[in-house]
Amino acid sequence: MSDADLPDIDPEQMTVLKRAFDSFDSEKKGAISTDTVGTILRMMGQTVSRSILDQVISEVDVDGSGELEFNEFVLLATKFMNEDDEEELKKELKEAFRLYDKKSQGFIPTSVLREILKELDNKLSNEELDGIIDEIDQDGSGTVDFDEFLDMMMG
């Protein structure tokens, strides 16, 4: 992958990415472990669920080495950085919802939602999780449809 393959990215963002990459490439081998990607994205203010991150890593780490070279890292990071585009975000959330709606019923059980929330913030107490779920599942159906999910993720 050459620089020509890199997405169009602001030079300032490129510098930030290079710094972040270099600080995690402690052995200076030009690659970082895919395990550190979530940490780097969180440092850059991007909260990403583990399952979505794993999916994107598998798309970007084409050789399956478990390591990302700088170009692969930039490709991955830009997938999360360009989320100013609301339509793109909705599309990604629709895809995420579809992954959790395993039986394609148009809803996910609140028990699954609870797991998603815990994954997004493992410091939430059971009471806080109950409160969030009660707020989202306003009709008390025990399920969350896509609109309720979208409201939660974007609101």
Ranges where pLDDT stays below 50 over 5 or more residues in a row are none
Largest sheet: 2 strands, antiparallel
How many structural domains in the coordinates?
A: 2
Strands of the widest sheet, in order across it, are 1-2
Distance between the termini: 37 Å
The ordered string of helix (H) and strand (E) elements is: HEHHEHHEHHEH
Q: Looking at this structure, what is the CATH superfamily of the largest domain?
A: EF-hand
Structural class: mainly alpha
Looking at this protein, list some descriptive labels.
mainly alpha; 155 residues; 2 domains; elongated; two-stranded antiparallel ribbon; Recoverin, domain 1; calcium; 8% strand; repeat; EF-hand-dom_pair
